[in-house]
Amino acid sequence: xxxxxxxxxxxxxxxxxxxxxxxxxxxxxxxxxxxxxxxxxxxxxxxxxxxxxxxxxxxxxxxxxxxxxxxxxxxxxxxxxxxxxxxxxxxxxxxxxxxxxxxxxxxxxxxxxxxxxxxxxxxxxxxxxxxxxxxxxxxxxxxxxxxxxxxxxxxxxxxxxxxxxxxxxxxxxxxxxxxxxxxxxxxxxx
Length: 190
What we know:
Blueprint (H helix, E strand, L loop, with lengths): L5 H33 L6 H35 L9 H32 L21 H37 L2 H7 L3
Helix pairs in contact: 1-2, 1-4, 2-3, 3-4
């Protein structure tokens, strides 16, 4: 059995990072634009909560794997091809911005996951009364309303940081392509 090339490992890490980022952005957008407004059509406020919390419990696995892929993919790159010694001054600035964005995605994602689990456990079967997926109903307790508001803010921060990361990824990739091929080759150590 031969060794796996570093290019194959790097490509797999980059693909996992990109797929994970896509899952984080896609799930968040789907919830905000699709599911959360749609559950308002359910007549019973507690059933709305049950549906929303059940859906997020299921998607939580996807979010967890996606978040791990985003962090691991970038951490692996920072150890080799995205290490400061391998980057131009411009790329180093973009990579530092990406470090911050990955940290923000991780922090907001973990905080939202913890808050979401806590919120779903506030009522049996996650049936916290909701007006829609984003807003607690008048029948919710004060703590449930506060927690739902905090979750909505965390979700917005998570989406914002993930979208910033998408933009930084594009900028970093473009900076790499703009570097002359011979210079890219000379900076790389094999």
